[in-house]
Amino acid sequence: MPPTIMALAGQTKRPLVRRLVRPVGGALHRILLSVRDLAPIILVISFFQIVVLQQPFPNFWGVMVGLICVVAGLSLFMQGLEYGLFPLGETLAQGFANKRSLTALLAFAFCLGFGATVAEPALIAIAQEAAEVASRGAAIADTPEARASYAFNLRLVVALSVGAAVLLGVLRILKGWPIHRLIIGGYLVVTLMTLFAPAEIVGIAYDSGGVTTSTMTVPLVTALGVGLATTIRGRNPLIDGFGIIALASLTPMCFVMAYGIIVS
Question: What is the mean pLDDT of residues 236-251?
């Protein structure tokens, strides 16, 4: 083969090799980071199991397989956030800001918060558990249909509340409202509603505020806020881009307690 052709062949192979090596290297780096992040909790559990309780791990090989699955799942999830959800959320926020349609932006913010929360695994789990406990406590009928309806209504209320929170957070970024006033006022409302809400719903309402800020909601909502604050002139992404998650953990408490008051 002539030298010129061999040189061209080498030039065409190198980019291909780089494209194949980079994802593999990035995946291995992400796995190492996941192992590092999980190391403290693994060490704590191992210490108390072996040193304090002085008992062997039950189903040791099953635990190891589960741990490997957790590391792999966390690595893939973080990789997906970095390459998919964060850029997508920021791009959408910038696109709606450049479109200069307030109605479209607010509608998108509400739908994003609602859709991400409905799909939130932690919310699905706590809604099902709340339905089980409510049926055992005779708060609802002890039937599959009643439990499914209770869990679905609870998820719907929480999703509506997060949609409203994201909408309010977008308005805060657009108007430049100080976040501390909204948070302080919101928790004063939560404290007041706690006095009137049924005791059975208060704990569920407080837990609902925590489970909404989890796997699906946080990446998309954070990317929306940062992308919007980056696009709008006069807004600081560090100061104005964050804070929507705090509102998203506050409004479910108000909405769920209001739901309890109405139903009771």
Answer: 85
